[in-house]
DNA sequence: AGCGGTATCTTGCCAGTGTCTAGTTTGTTC
DNA sequence: GAACAAACTAGACACTGGCAAGATACCGCT
């Protein structure tokens, strides 16, 4: 067994190519990224990316999968940083973590949801996406067990929470949002929106009882 | 003055090209659309689209502006179809109309928010977008006047409502959502999510008083 | 030390793309 | 009918993604 899994000519070209994708998107947007430009940025020939990722869709899919991992890390970190006494506080933290990821890694975020430019059946991509979604459903289930859903369908609450922070992230990154409102700090806005949702939709339970399950 | 503004060779090539864009996106996704393919679909030479729209970005920008008009029409129609007794019911109708537009015209919706492929400074595009956004802020203002904001900042409520339905639309169209949940009718889901938001965030005012303004 | 095998990466090619320039056709106006 | 403007075509250019063939560097094995 070798000490490094990949350490031939370049060192770790796949990682270098993914980094090149990020800087290329930062410079010219997702639609402006080309395999050849990415290859140039990494200092290799124009056909090298295809060797590792199969095609442009394969490269972007790997980039998107890496994005899902960054998303999960950001969410977990934000939950850990908060007190997160209960599921509701945890849900607000997840929302902040989601937006924090999107704003810190807009290139990843944009690619993750451009399924027409990706290979959506890719196993790694699906697994990474499942793992991230599981964080949300687990927390909504915790809210349900604590009786904070007040009879609302868990699925609707989960979809609403996800849509809320996803929409906020997408609108912020697209630039449609910051040009229209006074608040210019996305993190404060994310906190306000998340708190609004949790306070209004998931107020503390009256008795100690729990809601009905899914 | 001529009776028709544009009626030379083709009849109305700009409109035909915009229709061709929609079918091209339906066939091969936004990233798969090319000026030459659009021209072929309209039965004209490869350089004809550039003559009318300047560039690929110009063509997509015109398509996005048309999307904003369709969005406004869908929202207004949904509000009119509902009873819409007060601002809160109106807001829920706006949410349903937003999602209905996105699901009925996914090609337009996707292009509208791909600002990296557009010419975001285009006057028509900006105006169409402003008009659509104005419908939302006007309704939130009506809720505020009716005392249904309960002290919450109007800006945060407006952003939350917009983010909620935008996220729901984007996730549904991207396919990430329908593959994860039981509800397969986007319109019923939109109604459930909109109602959840309005019930929880904008319950009827206790007294008759109004909240503080912006 | 040297050999075979393999993964890495390069080079060259192809059809297709967006944009530019020049030219042709068509309709309007005087 | 002639001058003009607008609509559209035809050709060229640099660029793209994908493919096939080859060169290079590393590894395990004897």
The biggest beta sheet of chain A reads: none
Q: What is the CATH architecture assignment of the largest domain in chain A? A: Orthogonal Bundle
Question: What pattern of helices and strands is seen along the backbone of chain A?
Answer: HHHHHHHHH
Q: State the end-to-end distance of chain A.
A: 48 Å
Q: What fraction of residues of chain A sit in β-strands?
A: under 5%
Unreliable stretches of chain A (pLDDT < 50, length at least 5) are 1-8
User: CATH topology of the largest domain in chain A, which one?
Assistant: Tetracycline Repressor, domain 2
Task: Give the C-alpha Rg of chain A.
Answer: 20 Å
The protein's oligomeric status is homodimer
Structural class of chain A: mainly alpha
How would the global form of chain A be characterised? Answer: elongated
Helix content of chain A: 55-70%
CATH class of the largest domain in chain A: Mainly Alpha
Features:
9 helices; Tetracycline Repressor, domain 2; 2 domains; mainly alpha; 214 residues; Arc Repressor Mutant, subunit A; DNA-binding; homodimer
Description:
The structure is a homodimer of 214-residue chains. Chain A has 214 residues and is mainly alpha-helical. The first copy, chain A, folds into two domains: 8-54, Arc Repressor Mutant, subunit A; 60-201, Tetracycline Repressor, domain 2. Chain A is 66% helix and 0% strand. Chain A is built from nine helices and no strands. In chain A, helix 4 packs parallel to helix 7 (123-145). The radius of gyration of chain A is 20 Å and the shape is elongated. Residues 1-8 of chain A have low confidence and may be disordered. Chain A binds a DNA duplex (30 and 30 nucleotides) through helix 2 and helix 3.
């Amino acid at each position: 067994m070798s000490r490094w899994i990949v350490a031939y000519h370049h060192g770790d070209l796949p990682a270098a190519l993914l980094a090149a994708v990020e800087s290329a998107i930062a410079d010219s947007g997702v639609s402006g990224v080309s395999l050849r430009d990415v290859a140039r940025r990494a200092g290799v020939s124009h056909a090298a990316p295809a060797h590792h990722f199969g095609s442009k869709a394969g490269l972007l899919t790997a980039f998107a999968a890496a994005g899902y991992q960054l998303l999960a890390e950001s969410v977990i970190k934000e939950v850990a940083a908060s007190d997160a006494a209960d599921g509701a506080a945890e849900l607000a933290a997840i929302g902040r973590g989601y937006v924090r990821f999107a704003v810190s890694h807009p290139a990843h975020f944009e690619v993750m949801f451009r399924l027409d430019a990706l290979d959506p059946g890719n196993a790694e991509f699906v697994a990474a996406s499942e793992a991230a979604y599981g964080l949300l459903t687990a927390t909504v289930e915790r809210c349900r067990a604590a009786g904070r859903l007040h009879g609302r369908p868990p699925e609707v609450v989960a979809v609403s929470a996800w849509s809320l922070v996803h929409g906020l992230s997408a609108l912020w990154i697209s630039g449609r949002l910051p040009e229209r409102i006074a608040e210019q700090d996305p993190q404060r806005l994310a906190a306000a929106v998340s708190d609004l949702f949790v306070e209004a939709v998931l107020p503390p339970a009256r008795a100690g009882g729990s809601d009905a399950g899914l």
